[in-house]
């Protein structure tokens, strides 16, 4: 479905998808950092 001039639904959907991917990537990043810290604490 191509977006019409009045309602750029495609652009909004693409933007929302990019935002969702960024949020997921941030969560994965935070999980890896947290896991790394937990491992470091357990080693001491």
Please supply descriptive tags for the structure shown above.
single chain, 1 helix, rod-shaped, 44 residues, mainly alpha
Short description:
The chain has 44 residues and is an all-alpha fold. It is 80% helix and 0% strand.
Polypeptide structure, described:
The protein has 44 residues and is mostly helical. It has 1 helix and no strands. The longest helix is centred in the middle third of the chain and has 35 residues, at 9-43.
Structure annotation, total helices: 1
How many β-strand runs? 0
| CA-based shape | rod-shaped
- Bin the helical content: over 70%
Low-confidence stretches: none
Distance between the termini: 57 Å
> How is the main sheet built?
none
Which structural class best describes the helix and strand composition? mainly alpha
Output the helix-strand order: H
CA radius of gyration is 19 Å
Mean pLDDT metric: 88
The percentage of residues in β strands lies in under 5%
Note the topology:
Elements: H1 9-43
């Amino acid at each position: 479905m191509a977006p019409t001039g009045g309602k750029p639904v495609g652009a909004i959907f693409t933007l929302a998808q990019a935002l969702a991917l960024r949020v997921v990537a941030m969560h994965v990043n935070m999980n890896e950092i947290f896991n790394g810290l937990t491992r470091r604490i357990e080693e001491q």
